[in-house]
Each structure stands twice: as C-alpha cells, then as structure tokens.
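Page 42, continued from yesterday. The earlier attempt failed because a stray header line got pasted into the input along with the sequence. Redoing it now with the clean sequence only.
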Amino acid sequence: MATADAISTFDLTEREIEILEHLNEGLRNQDIADRTGLTLYTVKWYLKQIYSKLYVSNRTQAATKARELGLFAESVKIATRTMASIRTNLPEIVTSFFGREQELTHIKHLLIKDDVRLVTVHGIGGMGKTRLALEIAHQFLPVFQEGVYFIPLDSTSDNPLIQVMHILSLAISEGLIVDQLGRYLHNKHMLLVFDNFEHLLPYAKELSTLLEKTNRLRLLVTSREILNLRGEHVVSLSGLDFNKDNSAYQLYQERAKLGTTEFSPDEHEQLFIHKICELVGGMPLAIEMAAGWTSVMLAEDIYQRIQHNIDMLTSDEHDRPERHQSIRATFDSSLEMLSQDLQKAFIKLGVFHPEGFSLEGAEVVAELSPLDIKQLLQTALIQRDMSGRFKFHPLIRQYINTLLKSDTKLRIEAKKAHGDYYYDFSQRLVASLYTDNFQLNIIDNFRLEGGNLFLAWKYALQQGYYDWLLTASEVGYITEMAGDWQSSRKLFSETLQAIPENKQLLRGRLLAMLSIFEARLYNLDRLEKTARESWNLLKDSAHIYDARTAMIYLAILKTVMKDNEGAFDLLDEIDKVDIPAHCQPNAYVDSLHRIAHPLSLLYAGELEKALPLLEKAHVPLWSEAVIYLPECYYLLGMEEHAHQLLIRLFTASLDNKNHRLAQTTSFYLALIENDRETIAQGLPSKLIELTRMGFKYKFIAQNAYYYGVTLLMRGLRQQAYYSWYGCLSLLDYLDEIALQYQYALQMASHLRQRIPSQATHLLMAIAHDDKCPESIRIEAHKDLAQLLIEPDVTPTKVYDILLDNM
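This time it went through. Structure tokens are written below.
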C-alpha cells in the first residue's frame, strides 16, 4: 500500500489505491469486483474518480501514472531508496502554512498532468508565492524520483540555468548551457522550483527551450510578472481568506505570539485583528508586519495607524530580502518594472473609487491603452474581476494614493479627467430615462460605477461646477432605483449645505431628489420640509416634474403613516397646478405619477377603489410599482388572480434582471403557495434560489428588509415578519453574519415604536448571541438599557423571534 503522504498528495482514497494495484496486476473490472467485494457498477464509478484525479483516460495510463508517482508498495520502496541517495537543496520550512487549500490542490493536480510542464505562481510582492511554492515542493519530494530543487533568483543577474548547473554539481563546458542541461535532464523525473523569476524575464525563453529538450521535467516558477510562454499555466494569488476559514487571522495570531508570549486577544481585539486582515487584503507579508507591532500597541491602534500610514507596515527581521523589509519597498520594486510613462499613468488610476474601473475609464482618465492594461495585469499591479472590471489590492491603492498626493500636477490632471469622464457618464444615465424603452441594465451600470460617480460629484462641488451639478442632479432617480438610498441621501444633503443660496434651480432639484431618499428611509418630518421647499422653488419652472415627484412621495408616506386625509389633500393640491406643454416627464416620473392615486388608496386600505385604477395604470415592467396590482388582488382575497399575475411578473423579473420585482413577487408567491406552517421554509428557499440565479443577495436582502418596514407601518404585521424573516434567513444561509445582525438591530428599532415587547425580545437575542459582532451587541445593550431591561437567555438565532410571532 502507498504511504499516507503519497495518497494525500493526489487526493486518492485507500480504496482507490487498492483498485489501482489490481489494475497494475492486469485484472479485469469483474475480477476487481470479486476481489474487493464491490459491485461491478461501483468499480466502474471508482475508475472514473481515479482517471479524473490522475488526469488519464484509460486503465493502462492509470497504472503507468501510478507507477511513476510511486503509489504502489514496490514503487514506494524504490522511491524511498532513491530519495535517500538524492541531494535536494530545499530549505527547511520554519514557519507554519495557513490556508491556500484551493491553490495547493490546483497546482498539485496541474503538476501531475502529462500535458502540463510549466506552472507559474503569479502575484504581487508579499502575497506568499515563495512560501506556497516551497510547501508544494516539500509535498512532492516522494513523487519526483530524481529530485526537487529550489533555485532562488533574487540575488543574481545570470542565466538561471547556470545556477541550476551549479546546484546539480554539473561541470559547465563550451556550448549552450541549455543544451548541456537538456542532455542531463533529458529523461529525468525532476521538479525545478524557480523563485522570483521577474528579475530575469529575458531568460524566460531558456525555460521553454529546456522543456523542449526534456521529457519528464516539471518547472514551478514564482514571479510578479507572467512569463508569456507557450504551455505556461498561471495560478494567480490573491490575499488569504479573512471571511470564511480565517487563515489570515490564524497567521496574524501565530506571528503575534512570536513577539509576546502574553498574546491572548479578547473579543474586542479579535474584531480589530479581523479588520486589520481585511484592511491589508489578506496579504501574508502585511499581516506578519502588522502582527509585529503587537508587543507595542493594541490591535485597534495598529488598525487606525495602518489606515493612515502604509509605512507602518515594516519588518525588523534581518533575514528578509531588502524588498520585503517594508510594504512600500515591495511596491516600489514592482513599480520600477514599468516605464516612466506607464508609472505615471498607473499612479493616475489612484483617482478611481475602490470599487474599481472599466477599461474605457482607464483609457480616458489615465490614457492607458489595452496593451498597457495587459502589462499591469501581468505584473499583478491590478486585478480583473468576474464582471470584467479592474481593481487594486487595497494596499496598492493606498500606496499609489500617497504617490498621487505627492505629485500636485499629476493629481490635478487625474481629478479633472476623472470628473469630466463621469460627468459624461451621468449624462448618459439621465438620457436613458427619456428613451421610449428604458432598460434596467442602466441600473446595473450605475451599481458598478456609482462610487466613481459620487467621487466626481464631490469634485464638481469642490470646484464650484454648479452647472455640472444642475444637469447631473436627475441621476438621483437612477440611484433610487439602484437602492443606494443611505449614501445618496448623505451626498445630496451635503451638496445642499455647500452650494450658494442663490442657486435656486439647483437647490430645488437637489431637494426633490433628497425627498425621494427621505421617503425611502421613512423620515416623514424631513420629507415634509424638503418636498415642500422643492415645490415652492420649482412649481413655476421647467423642472416642475421633479417637485411633483417629491410631493407624491410625501403623499404616499402620509398614507403609510395613516394620515389619509393629509395625503389626498396633498395630491389634490399638486393636481391643480398646470404643467407647461414643453415639460416632459422622464420614464421614472411618468411611472410614479400614474400610480400615485391608486397607490395612496391601496396604502389607505381603500382596496375596492384602488383596484380599478391599478388595472388601468399600465405600469412598465421595470418599475417596482407593477407589484401593487397583484398585492391588491391578494389583500382582497382574489388569490387566483394574484397568483397568475405574479407568475408572469416573476418570469419578467428574471428576463429583465429586476431584483426588486423578483424579491417582491417571490414574497407574495410564498404567501400564496404555502400554508402558515411551511411559509417559514418557503420564503427563504425562494430568496436563496434568486441568488443562485445570479441576483445580488445584498439587494435582495435590502429589499426584503425595507418592504417589511413598509408592511409594518401599514399595519400588516404578519406579512412584515414574513419579509424580515426571509431577509435574515437568507443572510444566515449565506453566512453574512454582520449584515444579518445589523438588519436585526434596525428591525428592533422599528418594532420599539409599534410593538415594544417584540423589540425587547429581538434586542435580547442580539445582545446574548455570541455570533453577533461586538459593536452590534453593544448597541443592543444600549437599547435595552434605555428600556431598563437586562438581557436574559434567548434563542440563538435572531429570526427565531420573528418565527415565534408569525
């Protein structure tokens, strides 16, 4: 039987090794079944697993590959004897290895495939490329019969093959080095590990030639830059995981203990250690450097200082390479790999929001060509995500921002180019509202670029570009549809405080947009003020529709708050004002105005009056208002009508990728299709299914939360609990613990005003639950103290409280 190390290296089970040994004896499948007591079907199933793990396609190839890898008893003995006579130069590993399970498995599987000869571990400096390569090399020692050798390249400028010759104690004669080495390694089963190859990229072709001259040689290379060789398999490293298995936290903890034997972090310290790991993007070198300050200061202090000063990340270990003595030195050495012009263009990219940028944005703002972008990707200075956008590692962004701040001329150029580009972008967004067939992909574009648009907005405000803001203000409708209410409210409010009082039209438009966000966040008093002020400023202008929108939101929220008389008086007031013929509503405004009266009637509980108006409204499918007709059917007990319409709307929501419509239709379908005993399982299942279909879970959860608030305010308590239960269950399923408790705390604040006893129970669950982040538990304790209640033993899951009261 093979050794345990050999089995684990290839993820083969002992049963699979047993079947492989029978294959090696030449037994047929039925004979193997008789020997092992398995059925013929099971033997065939095992063979498929073996072929997949060894990357072969038939019995003969499997047996041959197993013999080569030393997986049989006799082969292991031979390999063991051979290893005893092999001089390997692998350095001893003196540090523990954390995480990287996925990368380890992937690289090991690549290196045993017959058609893979060269694997490059690629990433920025400090990402742990060398440590990963050494871990793999040590695991492969029993596999490569002629040896595994480590070739460090950071301190040489010579042909790396010369260093290989020295390590293998081979005499160098006249002629090409690659020919001499190729003859020696021609049929040898050997692994060569080249570390830090980015210093010697002109010699990359030598590796390709060497592989052509050998049959069984494998090369594992670490490099900050891709080699660009045929047959090169690139494995790019990102940071250690700081969300799931917490390998980043484990690394921090081990390194911290080296500096102080008294390291025993309490819950508060643990919270900031996780924050540090996230702040440095899981970069192993940065984590080690941050942990090195543990003997001097608390984790919270380390976190605060790193936020403002990347030079905190230094090392006093004398055995580190010079480029790894600080994060700045690490990044400086990467930047020096670029031409002067490309360095400047790269630094300009620091003007973008942390959410990233598009290829078009990089071309316009930083004047980078696609080839330039490709080089930045190959040097690991930027990363490309699944959506096709580009981002920085958070520490690289912090690094280039310090460089951008130190170059005044470059910073001014970058900010101006960024502002101009996103002004044009905002105009394209606004123009889309006036097209005959408004498409929801506009919302997706905003979600990708919203952070950059807001940065450009703040730049325009700082520069006093008030005409820019006047024409861009209508983008508020887009931000509302995107669900970006909190940050939009903050931006529009800050803008109003900063602009001169005499900018009346701009103030009116900004107030109208701000009113939308106040309404969405249920701030009735502030909404009353902003909506009426906007109405007074704009009712005689070409922007009257913006003011009408603000007043309609005020009327609708009044019905939610049970001020039905005030709401209908308000609607009558705005209907009496004539609208000039040249004023045209955009798609958002037109949809809202169509639904204003029937929606107010629905919220006021006058369902019979609302129904015929809703049926005649003809609301477009992209508008969330389309849900109110099936809701009215449902509340009137016309469940079959509601069900048929909901099915059609759900299909439309999938076709149009409308997350709000998808969530609300799922909600009502769950109410109709499940009885009370099964709805607690039915609704979360539907929401989970939406995330599997590609909908963003944060938007689904947010919509479920806010919809529950509206239902609660309308007096539909049980439906509100259902919606909230779906929100919390979805986040629990996705292991989004912090977001789950954050929403639970907000739910408790709404319940305090209406159902104090339920708020108390929910706050107790939050305050008592060990899984809840400390900052949220502290807030729950404060709320309980205001209620003069001490927390007691409560259910461990916050949504149990909602479930108990459905």
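Notes: The first strand starts at residue 118 and ends at 122.
Reminder to self: strip header lines before submitting.
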